[in-house]
Design brief:
This protein has 296 residues and is an all-alpha fold. The protein has 13 helices and no strands.
């Protein structure tokens, strides 16, 4: 019975490693984006390989830990057993189990090394190819087109009040792009799935972006229900939310290898882009360039 429970515990832990909820949510979004042409096959393949690599490493670590615990248990059994015959039999069993586990760990370790070597070779081969400025431009254009940057930038022409109000439906539109139509509305206005702040949390923004985003939503909801005057700081907050969300969308859409190996070129091209598009809005331009500079 104890052995069956031990096996069940082992299987349960391996299942948790393989079916990582956060990772599955990320894959779900990536597959949806791929089906809509927003993500390339290369990007999806890279994400899948990354997930596989994480599984192999986690299972290896857990297996080693499990084998170590089993060895300690058997050693304790030998130590506590006072019968010479049983002592010899347990020692023999212990040696066999340790040998089997060592062989298994060696096989897994070899497989992990092969995967790591493969990824390193792929990275090295790609690093050897210099990325031209035209390739950087092309990648930025693809990325901005993918996130609909022009539609976002058009909002910069709104006056402060309109901007504060219009940002909210723009964020709802972003949610629908990622998850499709919202769940069927409930008569209960407090139901979690229908609260805008919860929807934004599902988009997976970095913590600092999510915090300021939900703060804006709270102020906007309070304004919509009470119709009290909004403060200049509230309008300023809406602009800052816009900048942080837009920049985060850009960075997530860019090719990760270009982002890591061509930061100066990417920053230069993005700086040129926003300088051209926001010539009539210098304050907004400064916000975006300051935000880009911090992440680059």
């Amino acid at each position: 019975m104890a052995k069956s429970q031990e096996l069940a515990n082992f299987e349960n832990m391996v299942e948790k490693i393989i079916f990582n909820e956060d990772e599955l949510d990320t894959l779900k979004i990536a597959i949806k984006n791929f089906s809509e042409g927003k993500t390339s096959a290369k990007e999806l393949k890279g994400l899948l390989l990354q997930c596989r690599g994480r599984m192999v490493e986690d299972v290896t670590d857990f297996t080693f830990h499990f084998a170590q615990k089993r060895t300690e248990t058997l050693l304790q059994t030998v130590k506590n057993n006072g019968h010479p015959t049983s002592h010899t039999k347990i020692e023999s069993q212990l040696r066999e189990e340790i040998q089997e586990k060592n062989e298994l760990l060696e096989i897994v370790a070899q497989r992990v090394n092969q995967l790591v070597s493969k990824f390193n070779n792929e990275d090295s081969s790609e690093e050897q190819k210099p990325t031209s400025i035209d390739e950087v431009k092309e990648e930025i254009e693809r990325c901005l087109d993918q996130i609909g940057a022009n539609e976002w930038i058009e909002m910069c022409d709104y006056d402060d009040y309109m901007f504060f109000v219009k940002l909210y439906p723009k964020l709802e539109e972003l949610y629908r792009e990622r998850f499709g139509k919202s769940e069927k509305k409930s008569n209960d206005a407090t139901e979690g799935k229908e609260i805008m702040a919860n929807k934004m949390a599902r988009l997976g923004f970095p913590e600092e972006v999510e915090t300021i985003l939900i703060n804006y939503i709270s102020i906007r909801d309070n304004f919509a229900h009470s119709m009290k005057d909004i403060l200049p700081s509230n309008l300023d907050l809406a602009r800052e939310v816009f900048v942080q969300v837009l920049v985060d969308l850009i960075l997530n859409a860019l090719d990760s290898k270009l982002l890591s190996n061509n930061k100066e070129r990417l920053y230069s091209r993005l700086k040129d882009f926003f300088s051209e598009r926001l010539t009539g809005n210098p304050n907004f331009r400064k916000r975006i360039l300051r935000r880009l500079k911090t992440v680059f």
